[in-house]
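User: Predict structure, ligand zinc ion.
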Amino acid sequence: MLSSLRFGASRIGRFVADLIYPPSCSACGAALVDAEGLCPACWRAMPFVTRPYCDRYGTPLPVEHGSLLVSPLAIADPPVFGHARGVARYDGVARELVHGLKYGDRPELAPMMARWMVREGQDILGKASLVMPVPMHWTRLFRRKFNQAAALAHAIGQETGLPVDCDSLRRVRRTRPQVGLTRPERAANLQKAFHVSETTRFRVQDAKIVLVDDVMTTAATGNAAARALLKAGAASVDLLVFALVAKGG
Ligand SMILES: [Zn+2]
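Assistant: Predicted complex:
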């Protein structure tokens, strides 16, 4: 009786909320009949990463790649982290969602994006012991007031039950924005940008870490963060992002 009353109350609450905030597409704002998410048109336009993809970088591979599981890039220049997984290519609807979360004051996008990330990152999350966002330098965080990677990491923690650690990995050097830099320039820009402090090192030691970020562009950030975590004693570091730039695969 009580549970059915509660169920009824939550249904009424939902009905009232829908009147005030009618469900709409998270990307284009089109009205939806029920629930939140994407409208059919945006869903079809989402550049989801599908198999085959590179086992190391997570980037899509041409179908004619056959049974090869890694990209030529992963053979020529293997990443420091173990495996990267991404939901979509950084393009179109996926880019709009990333921008909405990052600049548009839309933190409500994080749970939806995180659910997709959990689905896509099943293999790396299944063996993980700790989730960590890629940290922002405090000056940037101060200006922006919101770290989208931390919002995604928290939502992934809620979805999976894995602990989330936002403190142990620090961005100690302010790096200039990576946009427009070449691959070697990005790596140099990020040299020693991340650090695990002595006081929090015990949390990282022997941990199987999944690093979370919104976008992977060249993997330079993921590599630099993974290097700092492995140096601090992490057993493994994988990378889970919402969107990845699919070039060089
Ligand atoms: Zn839409």
